[in-house]
Amino acid sequence: MPVLEPNPPEPRKKLLLIFGAMLAVTVVIGVIASIAAG
Fold this sequence. Notes:
- By secondary structure, the chain is mainly α.
- The protein has one domain (11-37).
- The chain is built from one helix and no strands.
- It has one helix spanning 11-37.
- It is rod-shaped and about 45 Å long.
- The termini are far apart.
């Protein structure tokens, strides 16, 4: 499963992937901050 496809089947799929990655990073930062604060 290639990480970067030259021609994605659906542009929306790539956008969703980017949005998902951003959301995941935000969640991870939140969890780390919670652990650090606690």
